[in-house]
Design goal:
1 helix
Length: 29
């Protein structure tokens, strides 16, 4: 069960990082 939480956390962190990057550098989108 720990692996599931770790994977979900990793995916969530990746999505948040992508959104922040998109907000910081909007000229690439």
């Amino acid at each position: 069960m720990t692996l599931d939480y770790a994977l979900a956390g990793l995916v969530t962190a990746g999505l948040l990082a992508y959104l922040v990057y998109a907000l910081i550098r909007p000229e690439r989108f």
